[in-house]
Structure formats: C-alpha cells, structure tokens
TrEMBL record:
<keyword id="KW-0949">S-adenosyl-L-methionine</keyword>
<dbReference type="Pfam" id="PF01135">
    <property type="entry name" value="PCMT"/>
</dbReference>
<dbReference type="GO" id="GO:0032259">
    <property type="term" value="P:methylation"/>
</dbReference>
<comment type="similarity">
    <text>Belongs to the methyltransferase superfamily. L-isoaspartyl/D-aspartyl protein methyltransferase family.</text>
</comment>
<feature type="region of interest" description="Disordered">
    <location>
        <begin position="90"/>
        <end position="114"/>
    </location>
</feature>
<dbReference type="GO" id="GO:0004719">
    <property type="term" value="F:protein-L-isoaspartate (D-aspartate) O-methyltransferase activity"/>
</dbReference>
<protein>
    <recommendedName>
        <fullName>Protein-L-isoaspartate O-methyltransferase</fullName>
        <ecNumber>2.1.1.77</ecNumber>
    </recommendedName>
</protein>
<dbReference type="InterPro" id="IPR026448">
    <property type="entry name" value="Methyltr_grasp"/>
</dbReference>
<dbReference type="GO" id="GO:0005737">
    <property type="term" value="C:cytoplasm"/>
</dbReference>
<keyword id="KW-0808">Transferase</keyword>
<dbReference type="InterPro" id="IPR029063">
    <property type="entry name" value="SAM-dependent_MTases_sf"/>
</dbReference>
<keyword id="KW-0489">Methyltransferase</keyword>
<dbReference type="InterPro" id="IPR000682">
    <property type="entry name" value="PCMT"/>
</dbReference>
<keyword id="KW-0963">Cytoplasm</keyword>
Amino acid sequence: MNARTDDDLAVRLRRTLADDLARGGDLRSPEWRRAVETVPREVFLGERIYRRVDTETWTRWEPLVAADLGAERWLGLAYTDESWVTQLDGRDGQAESDGPVVSEVRGTPTSSSTMPGLVVRMLEDLRVEDGHRVLEIGTGTGYSTALMCERLGAGLVTSVEVDPGVAARARDALHRAGYHPALIVGDGLAGHPAGAPYDRAVATCAVRRIPDAWLEQVRPGGLVLATLSGWLYGSALARLTVTGPGKAEGEFLPGTVSFMPARPHAAPPPGELPPREGERRDAVFGAEVLDEWTSLWIAQLAMPTATSVTVCYPDDEPPACCLVDHATGSWAWLHEVSEGRTTVRQSGPVRLWDRIEAALGAWHEAGAPEQQAFRLRVSGGEQVVFLPDAPVLRWRLPG
Ligand SMILES: C[S@@+](CC[C@H](N)C(=O)[O-])C[C@H]1O[C@@H](n2cnc3c(N)ncnc32)[C@H](O)[C@@H]1O
C-alpha cells in the first residue's frame, strides 16, 4: 500500500473504532469522538508491540513487529480495542528493534498502550470540560495524552512518565502527531507542582493510596480518577472530589479496571517461601476467593501488606496458595485437601487468613455488595474505604 492508501485506511479504522466504542458505551460525547477519530494510534505504538499468550503454566509475550507485518495488518492492530504491551521488565525493547526478534519472551509488562475503550471511558468519567487543566500520571506511549491534547489543547495538558526511555518515545510520537503538551520525566506520585492547580488528575498506572501531592495540586472541587490496587492485585477505579488541601471523598466506578502499578507501589518480590507449617484448621474460605474480583479486593483491604503465590508441585499433589505478610513476616498456607475442603496453616504475629476470613464474613453478611457501594474518604492523612452505615466494613489504605 502507498502512504495515501494507508492514511485513508487509518481514517476508516478510526471511525470504525469510534463507532464500536460508542456502541459499547465507553465513548459518550462528541468531543471525545472527535479526538478518537483524529489521533493516529499507530504513531504511538512504535515499531514493536507484544501480544499476550497464556499457556497452562505461564504467560509469554509474542513480539509483533511493524516492518514484518506490513502497514495494513499493523493499522488493524492499532485500531483494535486492545491493550498492547510496549515494554517488559523495564527493558527498552523498542530500542532493540533493529536486532533479532525473539519469538517469545517471558516477563512482566512495565509499559503499554492501554486499550482505547478503557482510555476513553476514563476520560469520559473524568468529566473534563473546555478550559480544564489536566494532570496525567503514566504517559506510556502518549496515546491518551494525545487524546487530551486534541480535546483540550496541548497547553492545558501535563503528563508525567517515570521511565526516561518510554518518556522519550512518547515525546517523539506526540511531536510527530503535532502535540506539544508539558511532558515531565519523573515519579508521577509527586505530581508536577509547577503546573498546578489542575482541574483534573488521571492516573493510567495503579496506586495503593492516592498520593498527597495530587490532592494538593488539584483545586478544591476538582476530580482525581485513579485505579487503587495493591499487592494481592485487587483493583478498583476510584473517582474522588477534592474538598480541600489533602482532603477528598468519592466513589468507586463500575467495571473491572486494572493497570500496572506505579513503580514505587509495586508488590515486593515473594522472596523465599516459608515452611509449610503452622497452626492448622479447616478454612471457611478457600484460595478461590483470591480469584474473584470483589472478594480479592476485600481480602487485600483486610491485609494490604500481604502477597500471595500459587505453588505447583511436580507430583499429583494439588497446588497450594501461600500468603506472606511483608509487614510482620506472618504467613498462611492454603491446601485444598478435598473438593470444597481447604485447610489453612498459619504462623507469625498475625493470623492473616483469620483476618481475611473475618473481612469476607462481614462482607457476606452485608449482602456481598459490589465495589460501587463503597466509598473512599481522605482526611487527616488517612485514607479510608468504607461501606456507608456498616461500621465493620471499613479499612485504612496502607500509608
Ligand atoms: C499503562 S501505561 C500508560 C498508558 C498510556 N496512558 C497510554 O495510553 O499509552 C502505564 C505507564 O505508567 C508509567 N509509570 C509507572 N509508575 C509511574 C510513576 N510512578 N510515575 C509516572 N509514570 C509511571 C509506566 O512506566 C507506564 O509507561
């Protein structure tokens, strides 16, 4: 295809993407539709993206290279409503694009172009209006930054990216697409005070708690939209209204939104496994609660400093789940001994599975409400997730 035909195809694909996102309810306003129909996502994907391939035992990443696929297939990928990983383990894969392509790679995604449907849904949920100044945390490829520039004008957009290589590529792509927002390389948890006050802050990396800096830099009445996540990988999308310096209150939005963690908030490595011993009893809840969206989130609220690993054994023994509390060194081993029956062995200063089960029990007693029923309040240096009128369902986010 020649350049002209590529451009025509990209225009058509953008329109189709916008139609699909509108049908799915993510794209709701003419302003954001215009942005989706204008911003060339292919410019932000660089030369190489990674497709997730799940095997029975692990996830691998298959590199897809623009030069090998040809323009038509590459554009097809760019305008699919999918997240495309662009960096693994903080390694600068894009810079290696002249080198040999490894046919499959294991690793942890550290940067990506978020699926357009989610980007647009969050931008709609951010309730942006003409003239608003927006702070974005997690520039990534720059695609979401470009949508904001298109909607508001680049002069009103500030975006912070922690990874210098990722930030440099986003800058290039944004400039090539004709956008010149304020691009900051650094830890977005500190915001960017020089550009404050902002009307809106939006994070495309997940945080364990809302950084104080965002609440100081967003004006009272302004909104902060961020995914609250944690070391058990429970997630919830929170929208807060700033009510004063360091004070805010808000809600959790529907849907199962998850993002890679802000680097300083990432879970610590599991470390050496503790011995499979401790006080033993039958568990009320088995490890399957950690596979369900809301119960996982409740477990994480109850034990925010715990991580979990599934341990597979070479013989016929079923896999076990091991939780370790990094604050106290306590642990819990969960073994499914027969269908529907799990035993737990706990040791250390905190009986961590007891705590998780108490929280899950109280949540069930309250009718197992969805995340949207909860609220988040920030004041006096504390961040509390609570179910209104249920004093037992109330947890402080880790400091
Ligand atoms: C999911 S990607 C962002 C996607 C992006 N909005 C897009 O449309 O391409 C998350 C990004 O957050 C960045 N990030 C992680 N921790 C950060 C931090 N503390 N401050 C700023 N950026 C951070 C990662 O390097 C990564 O590029």
